Amino acid sequence: MATGEIVNRVANSALVTIDLEDYYPKGARICFDIKDWLYEGLVLREKEFRTLVNTHDWAVYKDQFIALHCTSDAIIPGWAFMLIRLQLSGIAKQVVVGDLEALETTLYQTIISDLDLHFCENKPVIIKGCSNKPVPQNAYLFLIDKLQPIAKSIMYGEACSSVPLFKK
Fold first, then answer.
1. Exposed e or buried b for every residue in 3-29, given b needs 16+ CB within 10 A?
2. Based on the domain organization, do 79 and 118 belong to the same domain?
3. Would strands 153-158 and 161-167 be described as parallel, antiparallel, or unpaired?
4. What is the distance between the alpha carbons of residues 7 and 160, in angstroms, rounded to a whole number?
5. How far, in Å, are 59, 113, 149 from residue 146 at the CA level?
6. What is the mean pLDDT of residues 31-50?
7. What are the tens digits of pLDDT across the range 78-113?
8. 3-state DSSP: the chain helix, strand, coil percent, rounded to 5?
9. Helical (H) or strand (E) element with 66
10. Is the pLDDT of residue 167 over 50?
11. What order do you get walking across the sheet with 124-127 strand by strand?
């Protein structure tokens, strides 16, 4: 019964592929280093800091994702980050304290939490691993947590060369 026809068994299977890169939110990412707003890069002087926060042009961060951090060894009080966050309210899409990895992790935590995965119920799922965008490792863990109770099986990689991770 061989007809010589090539059959794509992957395309005809119940296998569901999830590529986290497909959910990567569009928008610029900015690391905002407050080190330059500290006296000698180490000491936060409240009066000067408040003046800088109040006079800074925050509008340049419109619709951007902001990671607030300090690259010096200064001890920054929590209210300093909160003061900046208040200025970015209604301007930036998202603001976190940390580096770009912390920002991406926070973004993906929200995305995956809101993700409707009913289409994966009782199906074999493959999580695509290679991406050109900075998908944080934690995003894969968030996805596993959400998939494990519903998926028949979970694999990582490509359909032609996947690594099995979980099977009911």
1. eeeeeeeeeeeebbebebeebbeeeeb
2. no
3. antiparallel
4. 14
5. 37, 8, 7
6. 95
7. 999 999 999 999 999 999 999 999 999 999 999 999
8. 35, 20, 40
9. strand 65-69
10. yes
11. 16-18, 124-127, 153-158, 161-167
Domain membership of residue 49 as a residue range? 29-92
Q: Confirm whether 159 is domain-assigned.
A: yes
Cα end-to-end distance, the chain, whole Å: 35
Residue type, 92: A
120 and 67, same structural domain? no
Q: What is the pLDDT of residue 3?
A: 61
Q: What is the pTM of this model?
A: 0.84
36 found inside a domain = yes
Helices (H), 20-164: 46-55, 78-88, 100-114, 137-147
- Indicate whether 58 and 83 sit together in one domain: yes
Asked whether residue 2 carries a pLDDT value surpassing 60, the answer given is: no
